[in-house]
Every structure is written in structure tokens, then in C-alpha cells.
Amino acid sequence: MTIDKKTRIAVIGAGLGGAAVAALLKKEGFNVAVYEQADKFERLGAGIHIGPNVMKIFRRLGLEERISLMGSHPEFWFSRDGLTGDYMSRIELGQYALDNYGAAYITIHRGDLHEVMLSPLGSDLHFGKKLDRIEDSGDEVGLFFTDGTEVQADIVIGADGINSKVRECLLGEEEPTYSGWVAHRALITGARLREFQNEFEPCVKWWTEDRHMMVYYTTGKQDEYYYVTGVPEAEWNHDAPWVESSREEMYSAFDGYHSTVQNLIEATDYVTKWPLKNRKPLPLWSSNRLVLLGDACHPMKPHMAQGACMAIEDAAMLVRCMVEVGVDDYETTFKYYEANRVERASKVQAISNANTWLKTQEDPSWCYGYDVYADALKEPQQESQPAQHAVAE
User: Fold this and answer.
1) Are 47 and 222 in contact (CB under 8 A)?
2) What is the pLDDT of residues 246-278, one digit of tens each?
3) Which residues does the annotation mark as catalytic?
4) CA nearest to 291, candidates 5, 11, 1
5) Please, how many CA atoms are within 13 Å of residue 53, restricted to the half-sphere of its CB?
């Protein structure tokens, strides 16, 4: 179809989902601007998994090879008993993923990935734009920022995370709830990594009944090793989004764990602690000219390593619907988007929150082999009720 280049599309938030939807919109010829509240992005110490399901989307953007070369390509996802070290699953990745899922499975530093994803946006990315309020007149949407500036848009995409201002406009103010779990995060480099490197596997999750530690390399050179945990903690009594933790706290949290985990903690120079938060299931994903994606729409615990992937899949499906269905009848387009994303996103959300993914030997092809472009769009139900989907605690 012919793209109406006069349609003004505003993306709120330039995280991975926002960057993906903006880059895909630009590639299709849409008029898009991205508004990010941060003054700049820095290479913070965090890693991320990118499955073949999302590498196929990067292929569309012409970014697949560049991202692939930057990341680590584990041959397996190993799950190991945290106490004994016994292997509970060995999920083939590496060449197997290329042959069977159609693209690579990589682990990468989030900052490196983000920089590549932002590269197509150029001057269409605006930093220092914290959204204060939205005024939807029906004919257009006014966006008012805390720096005193304002813009008008025809369509607004809320990619602004679990604390989404766009979501608040749709559904009213509501704080996310603390899940009762925290995530410790640390990046091991240099001499500390080399000291223990011969026993550190490229991608492994250590489990016991109520906690875990996921560990993997974040570069192709394997000179950075990252871990993220899931540990129960009854309360979160901090106003900050994260706090510093310590090696001593880690030893306490993983007391009795296998010697390799003890060496991981020993190699840790700096570790932070983050609360894992949930939201109630959404009764809607869009309203009039506003539409949500990613954590603004379906936040999930990181335990399946698919949260960012779901945001990027959302972005690809939303843009696909905007191309195939059109932007003039945007409400119908948004219904197609939701109809083609709700079931999959809700399934991943539930499995992530339940924390069962790949703990034992299973077939992950339904997740990794998925291609957002492969099947014809599913038509929305004519008289569908607002979708609400259970979130497993």
C-alpha cells in the first residue's frame, strides 16, 4: 500500500522496543519522531539474550550481521542444579539454531545492542523529553514535555516501559506492584574473569527451588561475563530503581551453591540489586490514537530471557499491521495488532513469571522458531471482549 507520509507518528521511549518500532517505521517510509526522557544513553553493565525470533527482525532492518558479530554465540543453554552442579537440561543453540530456527541465538551487552538499534534514527531521536501529559482531542494528540515543549501527533506509540505515561493516560494512575523477588546484576571482566574462565560456561542457569543465577558472555571476544539472579526478598523499601548490593550479600543468598557459583561471587567486584515488579493484566492495548508495546503493555520477569524480545516482536507486528491494514483506520489496525500479539505475549509472560523455562529438557522451537512475518495476519474478533490475561506470580 501507499504510505501516507504526512501521518505524524510519535514514539514515547527509546528503549529496545521504542528503537525497534521507530527504525521499522522509518524503513517503511513513515514520518516518525522518538521522544526519550533520558539526556543520553550509557553502556551500563547489563546483558541480554536475543533469540532467532528477533534476529530475523534485525535481518529486516539490515542489522543482523553487525549484531551477530558483536555477540557471543553459545552452543548450548545449560541448566544445572545449583547445589550439585548436575545438568538438568542441555538445550542446543549454536549451529542448531541456525539450521532449525532460521537465525542465530546470541547473548550480548545491552548497551552495545541498543547503540546499534538506535543508529538508524538519526535526528528523529530527541533526548531530554520527559512526557508530562497527553491531550487526545480525537483528531490529534498533544504531547507536553516537562521542558516546556509540546508537539502534535496523529498516532502515539507508548514504548515507555513499566512506568509508562502513555499507559497512565489510557488506564489512569496505578503503581506497579513489587513481586517479592529481586535481581542481582554484575559484570565480570579482566583478571577476575581470566582467573576462573576455564570453568565458566558460555550460557548457564543455576537453579534451586526458590532462586537462580543466569550467567553468560556479553561479547564475541568473551571478555565480559554477566550474571543476573532471581532471589526472593519479602520487601523492597527503597525509593531508588536499584541499590548497590555486595559480595557478602551474594554469598548469603547463594549459600551452599556449587563451587563455580562461589567463584562467580568471588570474581564479583561490583553488584547491584533491582526489584522485579508486575502490573495487573491490561483490559486494552490501545485507545483511539494511542497504542502500547513491550513493558508498557505486558511487563514480565526476566526469567525466560524474552522480555526485550517480546517488545521487539510487538514493534515488528505493529508496523506490519500499519503497513498491511493502513494508518487511516488506525483503530482497526490496532485491533489487528492486538489480535496477533496477545496470545503469544501472554504465554511468554506467564512462563517468564512462573520461572520454568528450560529448567528441564524441552523443545523451545515454538519460541525460537517464530517468525513475525511468516503467517497471514489473524483477523480480530468482531465483538471481542477486552482481553485480560493472567499473570503467574
Assistant:
1) no
2) 999 999 999 999 999 999 999 999 999 999 998
3) 49, 216
4) 11
5) 26
